[in-house]
Specification:
By secondary structure, this protein is of the alpha+beta class. 35% of the residues lie in helices and 12% in strands. A hairpin with a 2-residue loop joins strand 4 (197-199) and strand 5.
Length: 330
Amino acid sequence: MASRKNKTGITVAGILGGLAIVLITIIVIIQTGVWATVAPQFGLPAITSISQILPGEDSMQKTNIGLGLKKPDLSKIEGQIKDGLASSGNTGEKDSTNTDMGASGLPASAASPMSVFEAITAARNLPTETPHTKGYNRAEDFGDWQNSDQLCGYGTTRDYILNRDLTDPVMDSNCKVQSGTLHDPYTGQTINFRKSVVKNGKTVSGDSTAVQIDHVVALNDAWASGLWKNSRKNDRVKYANDPDVLLASQGDANNAKSEGINLYGSGVPKKSVGRWAASTPSVWLPSNSGYQCSYMAKRVYIKDKYGLSMSSWEKSETIGFLQQCQAKEN
């Protein structure tokens, strides 16, 4: 009997199996956050969810979301908000050498220029739109820190914010902040900042990452809620460097916050599970409960200033949370 020869070659089943493996690999890379970490180094969009590359995401609507909000702890908020507002004159304008602190010890710039009542009204009037979740290029769309015209020509926006928010800041002759103390609004901790000193490619002292500059309404949130439009192109670099938008914060808190919002509906984003110690279902909140109301009001102020939108779920959670703040104040 003649022996049968094994058939070789490419089969349809083999092709489909290979494509399935590739697809699964891509999904795993995106969902675990590996792509978002690596992509910016090659000038590619920082995709954080597989839904960002699927069609029709911008037309998705999600409503009737249960809030399940925890009541904010306002036992500490009176000093942090009222004293902060008083020291800032409720204008949001800060002098480049300002080290004035509220009675709470937090930077005056941490206070919201809007009261809770004003923020509730402004939030209701913000446009409600589904977020534009297609990614952006950080360097091309928002640029880097700009040189601050309020320093000596060499200091950047980062240095300006550090000089504004730290107590006893020390700058070198080029207006680069070398050290200072941060009373962090996000965690309530006190951080002694020392700029990293690097020799031969190794950090020998200091830690520049201990204090980072946070966009209170993250760049991705601002992009998704309006700055993606071509008509807003000229606002992007301005937004990224606007002192009203920026706040010095503990590095770990800033990293945990990340985008600070779930653009896809209710619930903490998968990549932030375990990192968002305190939040509404979709909006990140600082772990310092005494600062949560001012933080939420400041988010509204920034979105109102730049004419940005809120998703239906973000607006519901924001207004609901601020109403709890107002009830406690009354």
